[in-house]
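Hi support team,

I submitted a single chain yesterday and got back a structure, but I'm not sure I'm reading the token output correctly. Could someone confirm the output below corresponds to the sequence I sent? I've pasted both exactly as they appear in my results page.

Thanks,
R.
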Amino acid sequence: MIGLHLMVDGTVTGPVGRDTVERIISEMPGLIGMRILTGPHVVEGVPENPGWTGFVVIDKSHISVHTFTETSTVSIDVYSCKRFDAEAAVAYLRGAIPFGEMTKRVLIRGVAGL
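Hi R., thanks for writing in. Yes, this is the structure output for that exact sequence:
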């Protein structure tokens, strides 16, 4: 296994602003047993694509959150070269974001023979 990649996408029933994005990317690394190497970095989208994007580089890869105001959607990636509890991460996200609908995918990334 090269890494575990959790992808969460969903619609939201309320706003997901800068503070929420920053809190998620600040708290998630500790939840999955990682530490932050740089970040959190949070930026506001452009007028043509409003929302917030935040990311942290963690000791084994990265975590990113993208919000899209016009479509009331969010996309989150948690990727690590070290195994982590994807279900605990999803439970945390359900408590942090007002999801209407949510889908999650977990991929094991790797190269044959490794």
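A quick pointer for reading it: The chain has a mean pLDDT of 94. Let us know if anything else looks off.

Best,
Support desk
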